[in-house]
Amino acid sequence: MVAGGDVVKRMSAGSELAESTGRKRRLLRRPDSRGSTLVEAAIVLPVILLVVLGTVEIGMAFKDFLTVGAMSRDGARIAALSARADESDCAVLKGIAALGTQGDIDKIIDVQIYKAAEGSGAQGVTNTWTYIPGEDPDECNWPTPIPGLEGWNPGTISYPPSSRNTTIFSTPPPLTVSRCGTCPPLDIIGVRINMNHDWVTGFPPFRGSFTIDETTITRVEPEAFG
Fold it and tell me: How many domains is the chain built from?
């Protein structure tokens, strides 16, 4: 016959054994749990990092695309309004500079102001301008170019303002180009901007740089009627 005290002792011993076994199992599981957590972090962290850096890089590139597009549109608008003015190109360049920060302007490779072909809009005779980084964007080396002058400097000038047609010819009124037959139409003027964009983080695949190329063409505003 088993005494009540022995039963209590056995139950207590069994409880202690179970508790000890549970502690051992927990201790045995801990290294595996920590190791799996590290493995999961090693897999997930690069993915999260790539997503964050990619969002930053694409956002900054998109901002530059929007900036260059706005510069090109505003430049074309100014060129259409001031087509035959001696300072037409300079007005375009200053208008472009007004839309960007100094950092944006420093990244501009060149600005091309050109005559676009009727129908196709293909680029024809062109004036090419470059900017000296860090200089005053309101300085324009024109109409008498001085070597080494800071700001905007002309390269090839094949489309001077004096050659642009801003006259609508008509015979007789009403003043419409269609009734003139062989009379030249108003010029179509284009503004093309090339800007360099550098990837910031250098994290693959965002390495190196690329060129943003934006163009806007528009018909010049008439200044006279023939």
Answer: 1
